[in-house]
Specification:
Distance between the termini: 34 Å
Structural class: alpha/beta
CATH architecture: 3-Layer(aba) Sandwich
Shape: globular
CATH class: Alpha Beta
Number of helices: 12
Helix content: 40-55%
Radius of gyration: 17 Å
CATH topology: Rossmann fold
Oligomer: single chain
Strand order of the largest sheet: 3-2-1-4-5-7-6
Order of helices and strands: HHHHEHEHEEHEHHEHHHE
């Protein structure tokens, strides 16, 4: 795997760790995959605080996907940059069709742990090559999950990816986490992805400027750490986490945007 693909093991470890504690995220599939694929995690990637953040982020994406499926039960769900994530198993709402997409080496690793069904599929897709969107199945609505992906794409590439989505689908709904420009610069010194060799990340301060004249527009900003989830951390852990990861300083580094046509 290349350096970007290897970053999938960081959230995989974090979600497995937190799931094993029985808080925030119940994810037995990820626990099993980590047991099979895991290796010693060191440095910043091993931080339990990072693990809590990864688990909360996953829950926020899960809950949003469930809400979108409730509104649009016939939509195509497209999880781009899926890694080894088990969101297709964690969501509560039934779906008509779900496609997990990633680079070829990741999908080959994924096929060892997941089986395709009549409504669940895996496919190769490089988000930096938006022409590949043309090969995806048609649908009136696409629910697009971009978790942990945008920071690896220059803003102009991200715009072209969104252009391809809006050209193909009449209704596009997106949830996407982004670094700010400050967050991307700061990541050079303390981001856990540095542990697997990633040295260049991209930040976005003005999502409207990235979208430009596209029909996809900014809807709202979501919290990575809603009180309903941070309250599951008790005692000193909960106090420390809320002090460090729920204030304005954190939002100056990392944000979560909902977009829609």
């Amino acid at each position: 795997m290349n350096e970007v693909s290897k970053t999938l093991y960081i959230p995989l470890y974090g979600k497995a760790l937190v799931s094993g504690k029985g808080v925030i995220l119940r994810d037995p599939a990820t626990e099993r995959i980590w047991e099979a694929e895991g290796f010693p995690i060191r440095g910043r990637s091993a931080s339990k605080w990072l693990a809590y953040n990864m688990a909360m982020r996953a829950r926020v994406f899960d809950d949003w996907t469930d809400r979108m499926l409730e509104q649009r039960p016939d939509a195509l769900v497209l999880h781009v940059g899926c890694g080894l994530d088990s969101r297709c198993l964690r969501v509560r709402r039934p779906y008509r069709e779900w496609i997990d997409c990633d680079l070829p080496d990741v999908i080959r690793a994924r096929r060892k742990h997941y089986e395709e069904t009549a409504n669940y599929h895996m496919c190769f897709l490089d988000a930096s090559r938006p022409e590949q969107v043309l090969s995806l199945p048609g649908s009136d609505t696409v629910i697009t999950v971009l978790e942990g992906l945008s920071m690896y794409l220059p803003p102009e590439r991200l715009r072209e990816f969104f252009r391809a989505l809006s050209d193909k689908y009449a209704e596009v709904r997106v949830l996407m986490d982004v670094y700010t420009e400050f967050g991307a610069k700061a990541s050079k010194y303390k981001n856990p992805v540095n542990d697997v060799g990633v040295t260049r990340l991209y930040g976005i301060d003005d999502i409207g400027a990235v979208l430009g004249d596209l029909p996809i527009r900014f809807v709202r900003e979501h919290s990575f750490t809603p009180p309903s989830l941070t309250s599951e951390l008790k005692g000193a852990e909960g106090v420390f986490f809320r002090l460090m990861f729920t204030g304005r300083i954190y939002s100056k580094i990392y944000r979560l945007y909902e977009l829609s046509t």
